[in-house]
Amino acid sequence: MNNYNSIARLVGVLYIIGTVAGILSVVFTGPIAGSTNVLMEVSANVNQVKLGTLFILIMGISLALVAVIVYPIVKKVNEALALGYVIFRGALETVVYIISAIWLLLVVVSKEYVHTVSSDSSSFQSISHLLSNSGEQIHSFTMIIFSIGALMFYYLLYRSKLIPQWLSGWGFIASIIYLVTGVFALFGTVSAFVLLPLALQEMFMAVWLIIKGFNPSKVNI
């Protein structure tokens, strides 16, 4: 029992670490990635970009660890879905985060490029535009992959009753909203407010797991 409580607390802590790191990555890199002159902005804020990259990696690793840690428990409900959750959240999503980090690291290299190309040149503008658009598309695909993994996870939690079903149901519905938002984001901008239900649910669930742990009557499923 103590082992399951420890796992629950660890999952809760990892969710909080991942969320905080994700927010900080946006704080540090959001204004730069959204700039019309990405290369010029990066050349002036190299350390800021490096910190943002570090937080992206922390977020990816934290969320990937959740999938690995809970797999032995949720596989008792449905092994195929549990494995799918590990693939989407532990593998695919992590790869996308790494790609995002590589993109930011490559942008750092552009500092030297900016020294040799004037900011009003067509080549500079083209590269800036390309980097901005690629960052947006990567973010959209991350949302889709994240949502698919989250749907599997919350379905498994709902079936297992390891946490209250209203809480896992909240996560399932919020994940659907997140998935739809990610699809629409591929074709245009979306309001960040539609992402709030899942963010609130994850933080509430994280605190619940840290304080309450898993349902003791369901840990052996």
TrEMBL record:
Protein origin, superkingdom: Bacteria
Keyword terms: Membrane, Transmembrane, Transmembrane helix
Organism: Paenibacillus oenotherae
Keyword Nucleus on entry: no
Protein name: DUF4386 domain-containing protein
Organism lineage string: Bacteria, Bacillati, Bacillota, Bacilli, Bacillales
Transmembrane region(s): 12-34, 54-74, 86-109, 138-157, 169-187, 193-211
